[in-house]
Amino acid sequence: QAQLMESGGGVVPPGGSLTLSCTASGFTLGSYAVAWFRQAPGHEREWVACITILGTRQEYADSIKGRFTISRNNAENTVSLQMNSLLPEDTGTYYCARRATDRGGCPDPPLTTFFRPWGQGTQVTVSA
Asked: Nearest to residue 119, comparing CAs of 39, 42, 30?
C-alpha cells in the first residue's frame, strides 16, 4: 500500500527555520513528482512547492519563494522542505503528496486533485 509520512514540524519563532521530511513506503517515490501543501485553520489547503522526478525542476508558490527549498533523495525515498525566515502566516499543517500518475512533471495548475496519496500532515507553528 502506497503511503507517505511527514515529520519535522514544530514550534519556532518568527525568522526561524525548520526542515520537513516526507518518507514514502510501499512504492518507489523516485517515479513520481512530489508536492508540499499546507492548510491553516479555517482556510483551504494551498500548494507550496513541487519537485520533478529527478529533482531537476522545482516550483514554488509566490508566498514562499526565496524562503523555502524543496529537494529529494530518491535513493532514500524521501522529499524534504527546508523552510527559512519563517513568518506567522506560515503556520499550518503541512502535507506531502505524490502526483497520482507516474512519470509526469509538476502539474499546472497544482490542484489537489492531481495528487494522491497524501500523508497525515505535520504541524508547523510560527509564534513568538
From this structure: 39
Contact call for residues 18 and 37 (beta carbons, < 8 A): no
d(CA 62, CA 46): 12
CA 13 vs. chain centroid, Å, equals: 20
pLDDT tens profile 29-79: 999 999 999 999 999 999 999 999 999 999 999 999 999 999 999 999 999
CB distance 80 to 21 below 8 Å? yes
Instruction: Report in angstroms the alpha-carbon separations of 22 from 7, 10, 26, 34, 88.
Output: 7, 15, 13, 9, 22
